[in-house]
Amino acid sequence: MDTNEPVTLANWRRLPWSRWAFHHVAELVPVAMIPADLTRSKPLPLGSATPDGLDLDALLQETDTDGFLILHDGKIVFERYANGLTATIPHIVFSVSKSITAILAGILVARGQLNPDALVRHYVPEVAHAAYGDCTVRHVLDMTVNIAFEEDYLDPDGAFARYREAMGWNPVADPASAPDLHDFLATLPHGDGRHGARFHYVSPNADLLGWIIERASGVRYAALLSAAIWKPMGAEADASVTIDKSGAARSAGGICMTLRDLGRFGEMLRGHGRVGDTQIVPQPWIDDIRENGDVEAWARGDLMTLLPQGRYRSQWYLTGNDHGAYCAIGIHGQWLYIDPKASLVIAKLSSQALPVDDPMDHRLLRAFEALGRAF
Predict the structure, then answer these.
(1) Which residue ranges form the domains of the chain, and what is each CATH number?
(2) Could you list the active site residues?
């Protein structure tokens, strides 16, 4: 591999280029800004508690970590950076974006602007002839859409590669004739079976959710996320989301933010959607995530081996462990892990070589559970 080759759309998700690219995304892909309001931002306090008996520095090096943050009772007790990332530089969180998007959906549900039981085509009639034409928003939220699409990150020629071209993440021979993200979503066919029967992880579902949110609210995705969450949460830095050639937000995987703001978002959820005296996310939506999810659909699905006792609800993974932990996970090693019993939030930003590395994921889950027992 020629490491002198410049970072481009053709290589930005591969080592060694990804170690730079994952925190310089806006130099490679167009983005829409998600402004913070610094007048509402307060520094995260420092805590004195420390985890016992765990060699975290070795773990972080071995799992390609760019940034790692532990909050205990809302206080920073551990923070590390590597590969050029710092506390003030945003890093892409990939599919953690899905979980953030679903929290935004919950705000619209509480406002009466979005009905999870409504048919998708009520909000987005453009997909009426695709797999989404007869499914509900709840099917989209829970990844139980009956759709013929495989999440194959390493296939250079299949549907996922065409999906990346549509979102502007891969180079295309003729950009003018290539479909944009919304056009691509409207072409996805039904699979065999029925909606709601089986968990099937499909990233386009979460891009569709972003489109649904825009239609339901009448506000562009980045502006809504800024006004509804980023500013009232007290984020300490602007975030951003990648957009396609037509300006559609990559709500399934394109959000970039600082490590501390990722931790701050998790701490807000651990606090039942509150920051100080402000209820930002409706507590019933968070309670629904933590308490619900179709165990049988999960058991029939394609990620059951990751969390054998788990569930999936509104784009969040429920671990099924005795601490009631739940998490958001992104490819190449992005994590937001919330342990309510231990009052713990763990945020991890990474540039691991493989998009999905099952042994590494299992190792990290064991480490996160050990951290929950250590505090």
Answers:
(1) 18-374 (3.40.710.10)
(2) 95
